[in-house]
Every structure is written in C-alpha cells, then in structure tokens.
Recover the amino acids of this structure.
C-alpha cells in the first residue's frame, strides 16, 4: 500500500513539475519575443471601444481611406508599412490594429465576424465620420461586405487583396469545433499549441509558401515583426487564434454579395493558388467588380511589390476603373 502511495505521489509530482516547466517556458517565450523587436508600429492614436482599445495611425490629407489587415494573430497594420506613405499623398489614411491583433487590446473573448463588423463600423462613424474607401486583405473582405450590407453607404470603393474563398468563409462552427476551441483556450495546453503555431520557424514557412513568392528575399525582416505581433499581449493572444481555428468568424456572404452596390476591385498575387477562380466568379456575382493581377507575388503583394500595388489602388480610387491601364 505504501509503495503504491509513493508511486502515486511521484507521478503527481512529475505532472506538477512538467506542467510548471511548460508554463514557465511559455512565459519566457512571450517575454523574450518582445525584447529583441518590441517595436511593431507607431500608433499615435487610440480609439476606446467598449470591446477594448484599438490602436491606429492617421496620416496624409485628402479623401479618407481605411486599411484593414488580414485577420490573424501575427498580422497588424504593419502589413501596410510599405505603402502607407504613398497612399497618404492623396488620402487621409487610417490603418488599424484590429482588436485582438498587434498593439490593440486582446480580450479573453470569443471573436466573431459580427464583433469586427461592430468595432470597425463604430470606428468609421465615430472617428472618420464620413463615407470611406477601404482596402482589405484576406478574411477581412467578407467583414467589409457585411458592414456595407448591414449599414449601406458606409463605403465608396472596395479594394480587396487576395480575398478569402467565400466557401471557406461560410463554414460555421460545429459541435466538434466547440470542444477544439476549449482545448485551444486552455492555460497550458492551448498556450503551448499557440507557441508552436506561431514559432519563428512556422512563420518563416508560411512566408515562404503562402505569403511571399519564391524569389522574394525579404522574408526574415517581416518574420521578426509578425513574430513580435503574435506575442504582444501574452497568452491572451490565443483567444483570437482559437476562434479563427474553429470557424467562429464564419459568415455566409454569398447572398448579400449581389446586393452590395459598391464598386469593387480585387487584387490577386499571380502565384496564389485558389480552388475558386475569383477572376471570373467575382465579376459574375457583381458586375461592379474589376480584377488586377500582380505578377511574382502571393498573398501580400502590398509588401512584395508596393509600387505596382499603389499604382493600381491610386488609379482605381481616382478614376473608378483600372481597365484603361490594363488593357
């Protein structure tokens, strides 16, 4: 009996020691990630929303232009770092760190598409106070559509950069996803899984295979900044990650896409691979859609080819079309 009790105590002690060690390692990783590259971006303004403080920059003069980065724990307004100065020559440019990202607050909540509809619409009405043009990357394109669908005449022009496949966007959380979300939000296990997903090696792999084309040599510079953004705010970062992984950002926008009467330009990286041919699907769903393709780029052409990217944006926002330049 005593031998069994001793074995049980040793096992319990081992579990406690292992858990404590993992917890300590996670804390150290979050701490060290901010020391070498603590600067993510200069945010001169804070918008105090009921969901949390949102950091943003405001530069330039002219018609308002809102920049919405791809919604990912490692993303931030730094995504626009190469193009803001050029865009601000003709526009008053607002670049947000979305709630849960970058330098903005990262509350321990469930993140949904309607959370972002609410926070972004409130920002537009309370800070910009005017109709606005918007450039949005990836999974923020559906959010912009939902904002316009629910609050017509919010946007004057859409420019979407490699928008997320609408079939992927429409996936909603299942019962299995609910359990997965609970696992990903757990203090030790969830935090450790988060650290693995946003390790520098994992981020470098994503930049090499998804974000940048094969010929781009600037990956390391951006990996450092994305790594810092993914760890700003400590373990609270994992709550957005858990919601993204379990489809809590899902929304069916196919039906409202046809009803949104906003001139739209879609910019693709030529080397991206999609299951859906957006270049024809977008035009079929909405005749106001125009398509531009930037060669030798993938998911983030605004960082890979900033000159070509801003040329397309400026032409579309001033002329309302890109056809005469591309044909």
């Amino acid at each position: 009996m005593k031998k069994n009790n001793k074995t049980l105590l040793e096992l319990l002690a081992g579990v406690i020691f292992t858990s404590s060690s993992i917890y300590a390692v996670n804390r150290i990783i979050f701490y060290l990630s901010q020391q070498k590259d603590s600067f993510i971006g200069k945010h001169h303004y804070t918008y105090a929303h009921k969901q949390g403080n949102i950091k943003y920059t405001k530069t330039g003069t002219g018609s308002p232009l809102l920049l919405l980065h791809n919604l990912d724990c490692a993303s931030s307004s730094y995504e626009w770092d190469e193009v803001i100065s050029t865009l601000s020559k003709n526009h008053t440019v607002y670049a947000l760190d979305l709630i849960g990202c970058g330098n903005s607050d990262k509350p321990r909540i469930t993140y949904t598409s309607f959370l972002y509809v609410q926070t972004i619409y409130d920002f537009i009405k309370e800070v910009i106070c005017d109709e606005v043009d918007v450039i949005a990357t990836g999974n923020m394109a559906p959010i912009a559509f939902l904002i316009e669908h629910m609050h017509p005449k919010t946007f004057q022009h859409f420019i979407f950069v490699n928008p997320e496949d609408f079939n992927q966007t429409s996936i909603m959380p299942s019962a299995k996803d609910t359990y997965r979300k609970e696992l990903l939000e757990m203090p030790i296990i969830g935090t450790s899984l988060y650290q693995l997903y946003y390790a520098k090696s994992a981020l470098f792999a994503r930049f090499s295979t998804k974000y940048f084309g094969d010929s781009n040599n600037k990956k390391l510079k951006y990996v450092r900044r994305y790594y810092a953004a993914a760890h700003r705010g400590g373990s609270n970062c994992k709550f957005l990650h858990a919601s993204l992984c379990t489809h809590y950002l899902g929304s069916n926008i196919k039906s409202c896409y046809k009803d949104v009467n906003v001139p739209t330009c879609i910019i693709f990286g030529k080397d991206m691979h999609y299951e859906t041919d957006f270049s024809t699907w977008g035009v079929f769903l909405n005749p106001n859609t125009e398509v531009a393709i930037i060669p030798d780029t993938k998911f983030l052409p605004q960082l890979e080819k900033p000159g070509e990217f801003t040329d397309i944006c400026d032409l579309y926002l001033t002329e309302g079309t890109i056809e005469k330049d591309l044909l």
Observations:
- The first helix runs from residue 2 to 35.
- The first strand starts at residue 45 and ends at 49.
- The radius of gyration is 21 Å.
- Confidence is low (pLDDT under 50) at residues 8-32.
